[in-house]
Design brief:
Length: 427
């Protein structure tokens, strides 16, 4: 893990902490590091000195105002704005007089003529003329090296074989390749992935639909589902939509990366999450749901594993699953007036009292004995034409506040008997 933090205005410790926390949650554990570029300044300055001694780097004293004026003239003449090489040393060229009290930037002496060529693992062969590239600033006036230089030194020192990044970096790549060559090193393999778009088809950004990775954790997404979805955005393995982390590691290669921009679809992410949630072991899922409930001040017990097993098929996130689980731990339950009016009729109230008496008298409190008690009550009211839905829906409304739940006997068995009796008798 490498933290590229030479842009001091944007690289706060808080921003770094979010990156590390997000990677940790996703299970994308680093084998080495984290390495911070700001802690490697001595190494960068050593390489800068070597390049300068070899004639690949030179000081440039052009002020920001002069550079802005140059760009304005070029744009007015409908030329591409670029540094014009005023301070670039050439045989027989006389350089301007060095201004007093000005700290220069250091510029890389980009080759003149010829092409920079690489075989991109996503975009195929890319050729860029050196004449399109001006001399890049690789150290600021205070001596701090810039991104494009630092990453080359890092890639060499860290023996990086593949650089997989967004295609907004394509313009940086020929500059970096030229620095590699100036240092006598071969560049790594590059793969430039298309930008992910938001649901409106625009580039995602903090202001445009993107969230911190950790927010998805807080919203109840599973890390394996997130990895599955993100992987599938820019890569495919046939028609496989749902796969485990182990399958992904086995299947992945650079040959099936997508060439067109993918669109981030939160509804699809929720669907992927639901599939992983259904497949997850109940006890492992209960740990995550317990964390959600802990934030709400709800203490849980061993029943949570069974609750997760019963409700996970109808939930897309652990937050929704926690909403269901919370109903089993509260002292009271909210019943919507419309549900009360529809299901708690005068006809059903005596039957609910009858069921409460049956449940109170049970020798054991488990799914089988509760199911038998419900059948007895239905049988006793058969002459009135009472069917299971007519009994089950009012019971669900009273004990959990909703007419729709999984199997009634399973739901009741996961609630304390006394709590069920109190709620039924409040009908």
């Amino acid at each position: 893990m490498r933290i590229e933090d030479t842009d001091l205005e944007r690289s706060t410790q808080a921003a770094v902490d979010v990156i590390i926390e997000g990677m940790k949650w996703l299970g994308l554990d680093h084998d080495e590091g984290p390495f911070y570029q700001m802690q490697r300044m001595d190494r960068y300055k050593q390489v800068l000195a070597e390049l300068q001694a070899a004639g690949h780097v030179y000081p440039c004293y052009m002020s920001v105002e002069e550079l802005d004026a140059l760009r304005e003239r070029q744009m007015a003449a409908k030329q591409k704005p670029r540094y014009d090489g005023t301070w670039r040393p050439e045989p027989g060229k006389t350089l301007p007089q060095v201004p007093t009290g000005v700290q220069p930037v250091l510029r890389f002496k980009n080759p003149l003529g010829g092409l920079v060529v690489w075989d991109d693992k996503v975009k195929g062969r890319i050729e860029i003329s050196n004449d399109e590239l001006d001399d890049l600033v690789i150290a600021r006036p205070d001596g701090t090296p810039t991104y494009n230089f630092c990453v080359v030194v890092d890639d060499i020192d860290m023996v990086i074989t593949h650089v997989i990044r967004g295609d907004d970096h394509v313009n940086n790549t020929p500059r970096q390749i030229n620095i590699f060559r100036a240092l006598g090193k071969e560049p790594p393999v590059y793969a430039h992935l298309p930008t992910v778009l938001n649901e409106q088809g625009e580039k995602m950004s903090k202001r445009n639909g993107a969230k911190p990775v950790t927010q998805y954790r807080d919203e109840g997404y599973l890390s394996d589902a997130m990895v599955n979805y993100l992987a599938r955005l820019g890569w495919s393995h046939g028609d496989d939509e749902i796969f485990s982390r182990a399958q992904f590691l086995e299947w992945f290669n650079l040959d099936h990366l997508g060439r067109s921009a993918a669109q981030f679809d939160e509804a699809k992410l929720r669907w992927v999450n639901a599939q992983h949630l259904k497949a997850m072991a109940d006890d492992a899922l209960a740990v995550l749901v317990a964390e959600q409930l802990q934030k709400r001040g709800v203490a849980v017990d061993e029943r949570l594993v069974g609750i997760c097993g019963l409700f996970k098929d109808r939930c897309e996130t652990t937050v929704v699953l926690a909403d269901w689980a919370e109903k089993f731990y509260g002292d009271t339950v909210d019943v919507r007036p419309e549900d009360r009016a529809q299901h708690l009729t005068e006809m059903i109230r005596p039957v609910l009292s009858q069921l409460a008496d049956k449940l109170q008298a049970l020798a054991a409190w488990d799914k089988a004995t509760i199911a038998a008690a419900i059948k007895d009550v239905l049988a006793q009211n058969k002459d009135q034409g009472l069917k299971m839905p007519q009994l089950a829906m009012p019971v669900r409304v009273l004990v959990l506040g909703t007419p729709q739940t999984p199997s009634l006997d399973a739901v009741l068995s996961l609630l304390p008997r006394e709590k069920v009796l109190v709620r039924l008798r409040r009908s």
